[in-house]
Input
Amino acid sequence: MTEKIKTGVTGLDKMLYGGIPEKSMVLVTGGPGAGKTLLSFEFLYRNAKLGHAGVFFALEEEPDRIVENVKAAFTEITDIDDVLKSGKMQIEPENPGDAILDSESENKSTYAFGKLLASMEAKITSTGAERVVVDSVSVLDILIRNPTLYRKYMLAMITNLRRLGVTALMTIEMESPERSQLVFKPEYFIFDGIIALYQTGEESKRMLASEVLKMRGAKHSFVTTPYDITSSGFRVFAAEDIAPY
Output
């Protein structure tokens, strides 16, 4: 049986019946403010604390801003700087907008994307990373105007990460935060797993809910469960009737 990787996120491993299958490529999807980046950061942080090196590839925000936002949300987690200084967790800035995407030339675009993958591979190899986060692949969707080319690049990225033997979370923006309006894009099907974060209701009465839509090769809960973003991290309120793992 494939070994499972614990996310370390309260309640989520229970929904996953023990964790994410090792070397899986998992999509974390949700609307703005759902906590995709926070969840992914906590996954790397919790694993780094267990001794598993990880790299957070920031395609949209600067690393300092990401750390600032995480500290503001997780005020009870006071050793984030220490974990980053230890080298077990690193945040690597990548700016695909500078070069990737020359819409006039597919060859130039492919070359630039290849450089991005090479840069990611070099960092993973040099750090010995076992866990990876890519935040967010939505920026590639925006920059690459050709849908076929975008899917080709996404497949190339996933194939490369699989070859490197890492377990990865990749975040992507959901078109609507409502579960009833969930749309499965063609590229979703190339991932091993999908974790969705929903938001319902008005801003002042917003309800947060999570769902494991799929996790290839592993049993998982199919129950949509509430979650909260607390000062000590994510908390997923797994249903009481979920089988023990």
Summary: The chain has a mean pLDDT of 88. The domain at 4-236 is CATH 3.40.50.300 (Rossmann fold). The first strand starts at residue 4 and ends at 5.
